[in-house]
Structures are given as C-alpha cells and as structure tokens.
Amino acid sequence: MQPRQQLLDIWRAQIAYSWRPAGDGSRRGEWHWGGRNPSDAVGDAQQLLCLLYPAQELPDLRYADPDATSDAVLEALAGLGDAVEIPIRIMRLVKDYMERHVDAGGVPVYSGGANMHRVDKSVKATAEQRAIDVTEGFALAIPLSLTALTFLADFAPTVDRMGRSDLVEELRHVEQVVHRRLLGAITGLLRSFAVSTFDADDDFGRQLIALINVDGQPDRKIVRRFRDEAAEIIATLRTITVGSGGTAGVEAPTKLFEIGWSWSVVEKAPDIPEVSDTSTQRIGRAEDAPYLYFTVVALEAIATLFSDRVMRRNLLTEEERRLAQSLQIRLDVTRRYWAMVASFGGGSKWPLEDVPWRTTDGLEYDYYSLLVCAVATETFGSQRGGDDDLIRLANVLVELANRGRITRRPLVGDRAIEMHYPGVTAELAGIEKLDGPAMIWNMVDFAPLLLKRIYDAAGLLVTIEARADLLQVADLVWDHLARRRIRDGGASRLWDQPQQVYTELDKAFTDPSWHFTIRVVEAMVLAAQFAGSEPARSRSLEELAHELLVEAEHIYDQELLRGSGNAGPALAQEIRSVGLTIRHAKEVVDERPGTAFSLGVKALIDLDRLISAGRDAETGV
Predict the structure, then answer these.
(1) Of 525, 450, 442, 457, which is closest to residue 480 (Cα–Cα)?
(2) Element (H, E) at 227
(3) pTM above 0.85, yes or no
C-alpha cells in the first residue's frame, strides 16, 4: 500500500487540480475552492484538511519548518513554491478559508449546503436552508482548527527569524480567527447532542426491541434487561447540564432511548451563556434525535481534542478545555451506549452480527452496520479487555467487505452498489421548517470508512492471526479504492470514479469529491501510523523465546567456564560476539519475541559450531 507515498501522490494531484499559478489568470497565483460540489464550509474544510492533516499526524511529512522539510515533500508540493513559500501559502489558505466562511457579520458558519439534496427537485431550496450550520461542519472545524494551530505553532519560529513584521501580524491574526471557529464548533457540538426517548410499544420501541432481541425473549424482559444494562449510562446523562441532551425523560422505568448527534443544532437547544463568544449559537432546527452518520463524525472530531499531540502542545485555551470536558462526557457515554446495543445480551449472537443493522425508523443498510462498528470499536478494545469482542467485530468488518461488493464481485442489479453511488441518504428532519423543501444528506464513503475501521480494529488486536487476517482484507479494500481513482483530466489521481469498478453505473465524474478523498487520506494516515507501531506479540512465541535464551545463556556460561573466552584472539572475539547477541535478544524479547527467538537460534548455532570446533581441536580430527 505504501501509505506515505500514496499521501504524497494525493498532495501532488491536489496541487495540480486546486492551485492556479501566477500567470494562469492570476498575478500572484490563487487557490480554487470546491470540486465536484461548489464551495461551502464543509467541502472546503475537507479540501484543506487533505493538505493539513497528514503533515500534522506524520512527522516526516511536515513542511512548517523550511529547514526540516524533506525532498519528497518539497517535490509533492512544488506547485506552491519552494521550502519557504510553501508554509506561507498554506498559512494564507487557512486564512482564506476562515475569512471566506463567515456570515454578513463576520461570524463563522458551518454550513454544508452543497451536500444537501432536495427530495422534490421541482421546489427550490431557500437560502436559509443552504446556509444552516450542520453537525459535520462543526465536526470538521475541530480537526481543521487543531491541525492549523499545530502548523502555525511550528511555523512561528521561522516567521520570527525572517524578521518580517507583516508576516508576524498575519500569523497572529490567523491564530485568532482559528480559535474563534474552534470555539464555535465546540459549542455547536454541545448543542447538537440528542437524546431520543420512546415507549416500548410505539414504532421506535418495537424496532429497537426487534433489533436487540436476538434470543426471542418476551418484550417485557428485554425492556427490563435494557434498563439494567443502561443504568450507568442513564446516571452519566444526569451529569450533562451544558447544551442539549441530559436525561430527557430516560429515567422513566418503561422508556427506551437512543443517544448521539443530530444533523444540526437541535430544536430548542439552550444557549450556553458562559461562553465568551456567543455569536455562533444560532437557533436550532434539527429533530432532537440521533443520526448514526453524524454521531460518528462528531465522535471522531471530539476524540482529536484529547489526542496526545493536542494535550502535549497545549493547543486549547482554558475556555476551550473547559467546554471540551463536557464533550468528553458525551463521547464516553455515546460509545458505551452503542457498544451495549451492538452486543446486547452478550450471547452467542450480537445484534451487530445480524447484518444489516436496522435503525429505529425502519431502515436497513450495511452502511449502518459499519457506522455502529465505528462507534463501538474503541469500547470493545479499551474497556472490555482481551481480543474476543474485537475478533467478533473484525468478523463483521470482513463480512461487510464481502456484502459491500468490495472483496466480492457485484451481481447484476446488486443493491449493494447503491451504497457506493448514489449513496445512503439521511432525511434532515426539521429543515423543512425554514420554508423550503424536505432535504436529504448523501453518504457515499462506505469503502474508505471500512478501511479506516479495519485499521482501527487491527491496531487494537493483540492476537497475531486475527490481525494478519484483517490486514489481508485491508489490502483488498485498498486495491478496490485504487481502482476508483479518477484516471484522466485535471482531477487525475483523486477520488472518486465508482464507474471504474461498478461498470453498470452510467455516471462518470471529471471533478474530485473532497468528501471521499479526505476519507482516503484519513485511512492512509491510519495505515502509516499502524506501520510505524510495534508489531503484535505472540505470547506463545514470547515464552518459547525466553526458554530458548535460557538454554543459550546456559551453554554460553559453560563455554566461558571451559575457558573459551581466554582462548586465542579469533575464538575470544567469536565468543564475545555470541554474548552480545544473547544480551541483545534478552533486551528485545518482550517487545519483539520473534526477533529475540531468531537471535537466540543464531546464538545456539554459533555456540554449537564453536563447541564442535573445540572438540575437533582436542581430538586432532
């Protein structure tokens, strides 16, 4: 897969598509915002993150310090200039984005109007509908702001050395507008959190019971078990006092519920008055009910607020940290809720394993199963211990790759192709209240999202065989994605051209989908981080390596006792070399038992050769 090389190729292709150099209609050169969809806050954030995100997550791809930028990075970004010009231009791209996506009063907006599609094409969408803030806009603003702040902090020493006061002021201004957008995004996510309650005998309740009742138990018993397993979750919901959410009636003993994020700020979401800048807290319009897709993007964004890089570099202000703590409560309780539902009952079969997942509004798609995997993976890996749950989840991912016609060939008229194009749709309930048509949100990122989830699970697995099997599927998913790259035109080497895999589709594209491309970039970053991590350790191999080294060290000590270390210079050097090999093997045995085992075998072979040579010398044979 070569993820670092793939990321460099994406940068090269992105610069070729997006950058209009000086003399090409512009005296100074300019950036072309947008792609397959017109420019908006969501699509432009995805486009900019393709440049920023890899550089902040992978140290060897950084470009903020001209003296430390690698030749490979300089070659990939050569369209933007030399080692000094590249960070200046990227700083100005960040500035351009931040100043472009504001309302008439200069207040940040988080809209994704181009991603909204009318159900009735004969009715025109209103400007208010297109401009409404969406949860994905809030979610994207968080990694965008954090990667921008990291980049600006790394670039600041170079700006100081250059002695240009204009650049110093410009950098400080960019930092200020980035923090304003970040604060607005955090408050937006606090106000778009949703808790939906319903009775066991209404439509939503019957759907949830049918989903989790894999053993055919009486409904009354399922409700009681649900309430018992959700007791700690309900207790945590009581602590949510900032923004939307809270218990919202879930404490009633007969109630069932769902939690997560709605598609926008929920209707009647309270303002957060103790925020220094309340200008981004617009009136909520969304239905107070969670959407799996928006829950996943919100959780991924919130997790970045607590990454090692952010905490180590102290990127957040005191106010941002305080509000982020409220988001962390929501992150934890949401993960626990969906892990509970996904594995409800803990028996021989989980609801998650009964693919496809069925939502409480009666929709069934493999894509929803993938989204539930995305929410539950961290809980299965970090809080339950052992590999058993992760292996079951990994098996679901493998099945989804098959059912999604990624590792299996598609059938004629296969419904699974719809997940790739035109995609799974989600109705944006509540948007019609803005005097316009009902609208939907399209989700077409099944394949790259599957690759991300596979690397997430593989990184948590300890069992070598299970990890190896999952990585084989990852290679197949990447082969599928590679075939979907656009091959011709200005968008060559970007994504997505599903027609190249699913030939029955009659739609071909000439422009890139930044929504799809950023998902591939995120998957490549995960792949690169996985490749740089410690290999999985085999417990049985570790025990065998320890036993082998005990034998090697014992024989080595015998040779020293026989005086081999005091023999001639050549023999003494060889015996010392064996000793160093054994010592090194003992140092690495816990982290790399396979390496230690190999070193132990080498030491034993060398010792046997030395012993045989000594015997031959003694007998004269």
Answers:
(1) 450
(2) helix 219-229
(3) yes
Rounded-to-10 torsion of CA 96, 514, 141, 196? 150
* Calpha distance 33→93 (Å, rounded): 10
Centre a 10 Å sphere on the Cβ of residue 18 and count the other Cβ atoms it contains: 25
Q: What is the pLDDT of residues 259-288, one digit of tens each?
A: 999 999 999 999 998 899 999 999 999 999
> From start to end of 391-529, where are the E strands?
424-427, 439-443
Q: What element of type H or E holds 207?
A: helix 203-212
d(CA 71, CA 465): 38
Number of helical H runs and strand E runs in the chain: 21, 9
Q: Looking up tokens 């699970």, which residue turns up?
A: 457
Q: How many CA atoms lie within 13 A of 36 on its CB side?
A: 19
CB 458 within 8 A of CB 467: yes
- Give residue 37's pLDDT: 93
φ, ψ at 561 (rounded to 5°): -65, -35
Write down the mean pLDDT value for the chain. Answer: 91
Q: Which element (helix H / strand E) includes 339?
A: helix 318-342
Which two structure tokens, joined as six digits, stand for 529? 């981080």
* Cα(195)–Cα(248) distance, integer angstroms: 6
Q: Both tokens of residue 38?
A: 């017109």
